[in-house]
Amino acid sequence: MWNQLWNLCNNHRFSKGLHSLQTEFYRELRGGCCGPWLSLPQISDKNFTAECVREHNEAHSAVSPSSSEMLYMSKKKFQATEAPVLNTITFKDRTELPMPTSVCSFHSVLPEDVTELEFLKESIAWPETPSLPSDFSLNDTSDPVHSTFTIIPKDGGGSWHVGDQLKVLIKIADFHSRPKKSGGDVLLARIHNPTLHAGVAGQVVDHLNGSYTAVFSLLWEGSAQVEVTLVHPSEAVTVLQQITQEQPARISFKSIFRSGSVTETATCNVCLKSPPEQLCNFTDIRTGEPWFCYKPKKLKCEDRLDHSFEGFSQNLKPMEDKLFQRGVNMKVFLRASGPSNITIFPKPKDLKETTFRNTSGESVRTQPSGYYYQGTWQALESTTVHQFTNSSISQCLKGKVLHLYGDSTIRQWFEYLLTSTEDLKKFDLKTAKQTGPFIALDYTKNTMVTFNCHAPPIRFGNLPVSLQHYVANELDNVVGGTDTAIVIGVWSHFSTFPVEVYIRRLLSIRKAVLRLLNRAPGTAIIIRTPNPKALTLYETLTNSDWFSLQQNKLLRIIFKGVNVKIVDAWEMTLAHHLPHNLHPQPPIIMNMVNVVLSHICRSEGKIYKSYYGSGTTR
Fold it and tell me: Which residues contact 63 (CB under 8 A, 6 or more apart)?
């Protein structure tokens, strides 16, 4: 009977979409076009209900895009998507129960954020990189040994002065010394002076033809050494792009479920490709942030106890691992073709700032966020960076509440404050050292400092469900005011996922920040950027600088125009002489915390005079 009815509907070649198809189908059941030749079975008929479920799932699984993704599609995109024509559906054997599509997606955002998502993805679009045939040769890829950089003479000749702009031409070649003809390599550049403990990051412009230009602001008197690093060849970027799209769940998580004496462990992630009846849906009801676990066999979803890191799946194709070799083609310095250093003279009184333009005519920002001189960070923005002693830190935080939210790179700042202030004492909450939460108090000065790690995906161990808090929700619980400061650092644990997952999290945090500033405008909000790090094969596939570069740009765009302060951890790590590390070494952390405290307290601490600008309090 049911086959006859479906075949009849199939012959109508409905193309009005699934809803129209269902409407017409049920009209047929009532005899709307074929006469009253069918009687509707009773709902108690088990065979009838079983076939209804089968046919529904069959049609449901054939929809493209999946019904789960329709929730997040804009109206325009939905209208442009053609529903499947019924006569293209191939029915399986009646004894096989079709699997419906997943209830989640790695690529979705809330409906109101769809337009911004597309803009953000376009803003970080990486230059096209070479495709990799299965039999590719490493000799055809970018080789730092045969690549060079050259200092471009100053326009009009003459000496270099403080305030000038230095340009360096970078040419990339392969292992046969053949010039590359496309862009997409990941390069970092800085100039530094080891004697003066000075350094500043440069900006690299990709000309899309195998050549690049690094641009530097000259900010101190004396010598400056140019340093250019190949982080990844463009071919490695091709692999990173592919594994992110094809293996978004290469980092997996798990949760323990327990009830009485029964314990089960289940895999969890942002999205799991299984029917909804096989999943526990832990999507946050306030932010809409998705999180799923496989449903335990014996226990209930509400029996979930914790969250922890489960494992990493490394599925590289043959030879692809050769693109990520330390000392060969990953984080390797390029050699200079000609001199690698210059001498910088004092700034002339009549010097005007120049702007370099790339091949498309687009101007390049010549002023970095800051630079190091005598080992201290000199900000080139409105806030002067003070150098805080133990006593001035305590005085700065007197009568204040400081909340820190994020990952282990923010936990570093909490730990630094504890060791730098004698009167700030950690209150033992009996929580894990890695996850927290933590609280520190100075009763005499009425100071409170807290740390809370962000919610999944976070690769910590054994975070109890009761302590999993989304930053946006935490911000909604903050009273705020002139005596409250917020620090946020969320980035490292999002690198393995498609960029939509990170964008979705930042957008939810931004909304909460705006709500907080609306009800308590005096609240100081400070956001930490990502930073470059040491790379192994594992670190690269899970947390490459290429991922962090995109996150760095996304964070700045998303919070542009919002009343927040940025701690530029990217440039503060890149410009320093110490090696890159996911958790920067103490001298860099000290400078980062000094920036934070300078935003909170504008009149405390000792001021070091800047060579580039005034050292007085603004």
Answer: 18, 83, 84, 101
Straight-line distance from the first to the last Cα atom of the chain, in angstroms, rounded to the nearest whole number: 83
Question: How remote is the C-alpha of 316 from its chain's centroid?
Answer: 22
Report the distance separating Cα 507 and Cα 498, nearest Å. Answer: 15
pLDDT tens profile 436-490: 999 999 999 999 999 999 999 999 888 999 999 999 999 999 999 999 999 999 9
Of 4, 94, 99, the C-alpha closest to 47 is 94
**Is residue 14 predicted with pLDDT exceeding 70?**
no
Rg value, the chain, Cα: 29
Q: What is the mean pLDDT of the chain?
A: 84
SS3 per residue for 323-350: HCCECCCECEECEECCCCEEEEECCCCC
What six digits make up the tokens of 221? Answer: 């008197």
Task: For residues 187-196, give the mean pLDDT.
Answer: 98
**156 φ, ψ to 5°?**
85, 0
Q: Is the peptide bond before 464 cis (omega within 30 degrees of 0)?
A: no
Q: Kindly tell me if the per-residue pLDDT of 410 is higher than 70.
A: yes
As given in the structure block, the two tokens for residue 416 are 């630094």
Beta-strand runs (E) in 514-572:
524-528, 565-567
The tens digit of pLDDT for each residue in 292-320 reads 999 999 999 999 999 999 999 988 999 99
CA atoms of 546 and 291, how far apart (whole Å): 26
Show the DSSP H helices in 181-338 as ranges.
234-246
pTM: 0.81
